[in-house]
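Standup notes
- DV: blocked on the single-chain target, sequence here:
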Amino acid sequence: MVARYSLVVLLALFLIGCRPATPIPAAASSPVIEATATAEAPTASPDYAALIRNAQYQLGTPDSLQVVQLANGKYERGAPGDPDYASIKLTDFVAAGDLNSDGTNEIAALVSENYGGSGVFVFLAIFTTTNGTPVFLTSSMVDDRPQLNALAIRNNEIYLDAVIHGMNDPMCCPTLHVTRNYHLVDDQLDTTHYETFTPDGKPRTITIDSPADGTEVLSSVHIKGSLAIAPFENTLAYSIKDGAGVELARGAVSVTAAEPGGPGTFDTTILLGKILSNTVVFIEIQDISAADGSLLGMDSVELVVK
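- DV (later): unblocked, structure below
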């Protein structure tokens, strides 16, 4: 009887030991990955700096028309001390963008010119492209030995940030921090906005709020705007210019400001005089230094006289 009981116990223990302690979980199903179409590789942007490193460039300093061929961003003629010496160099400041709303990018570049003396004259040069080949269009001088900070094209305009020579600066050492905006009119550069900065870094910003560019006007135009720093005796100047930059008229604009040198506004009507119909004119609102007559700040608007 004892032997039979012992045999039953042993058999029960054997069956329990053969059963798993916990159920084995079902294998998780693998996630289904759907095949997707391979995205097309993005089109490579043109290397505009490389594109103009071997372009033809028209010298800006000589009085006569002279076109030179850049090679790897440089052109040299003669040796220092020679009467005809020239050293032309493309700087690292190159930008691309559409300046005339034709859907094609123009190229802006800062180019230095040296003719053997201490002067290193920097020009803002504009190139267009024809069948992928860069073609020089126009240029405008920036300064002699400026400190270059930034160059960009945005909203169909060129933006330049530099330190140039003030009226009393020695030629070695420019101190006047400026920003300029340029646009392209009839393949020529024209300044649309200009700012200088106070010694403590505040910009002398002038902003024309109305009318907008392209507005059609008759014999007069009502101009409103604001400025960050009220001018001497709360008086700005206006200048009316044609598309070639020829000044047609000039006058004064009164500023309203709560305190001298504080923010201000202007609201005035300018008579346009006898300007032919369908003529494009540019009106500049300017802050002119009472000390030396230099330009401290400017904003402009493009109008069509009907």
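- Follow-up: Confidence is low (pLDDT under 50) at residues 1-44.
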